Amino acid sequence: MRRRNYGFERRRRDDLRRAKQEQKRQRRAERAASGAVGPEMGEAQDTGARPDVWEWFSASRGRTLQSPAGTRPPSDPPDDWILLTDVDEPEAPDAEA
């Protein structure tokens, strides 16, 4: 079995670690000098449903469904559809319907 030179390996690892830290410091200093704070994220995407569609969730079915605005999905038992789309009060579906 070969014997390692542990002192040399430790020094080499420390040198690599120091070099990485120095590169990080330089990148940080360059960003601070240019006024940039970090990587560009881009614009936020709209993840909501379209305005003419209501989105429903059924816990028993474990899925979501989209229907035209103002209509409930077909009510096969169990009728546990929950409206996920934010709507104004006058537009909201009746719980009894």
3D architecture notes:
The chain folds into 2 domains: 42 residues; 39 residues. By secondary structure, it is an alpha+beta fold. The chain is elongated. The protein is built from 1 helix and 3 strands. A 3-stranded antiparallel sheet has the order 2-1-3, with no helix packed on it. 30% of the residues lie in helices and 15% in strands.
How do you describe this structure in short?
This protein has 97 residues and is of the alpha+beta class.
**Weakly predicted, low-confidence segments:** none
Shape call = elongated
- How would you write the strand order of the largest sheet? 2-1-3
Major sheet characteristics: 3 strands, antiparallel
For the termini, the CA-CA separation is 81 Å
- Rg estimate, integer Å: 29 Å
Number of strands: 3
Provide tags for this entry.
97 residues; alpha+beta; 2 domains; 1 helix; elongated
Which helices and strands appear, and what pairs or packs with what?
Elements (H helix, E strand, L loop, with lengths): L5 H29 L18 E6 L4 E6 L12 E3 L14
Antiparallel strand pairs: 1-2, 1-3
